[in-house]
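step: validate -> pass
step: tokenize input -> pass
step: predict -> running
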Amino acid sequence: MIRVHVDLGLCQGFANCVMVAPEHIDLDENNKAVAVNDLFPDSDLSDLTEAAESCPAFAIRLERVEQ
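step: predict -> pass
step: emit ->
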């Protein structure tokens, strides 16, 4: 499983991640990125990686977790 961590101090609300992976990441009421789920299946790794790499502020980090 994959967990998405967003550093809200770094996130600037550019929303590149949302454009790349709208089914995985959204913006909250403060225009900060948030993951739409706590955990994602490994099959979503490619989309999540693309979303993290699209962030110009480097605010998104992915973590593989065991379930």
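step: describe -> The helical segments are 16-20, 45-53.
step: cleanup -> pass
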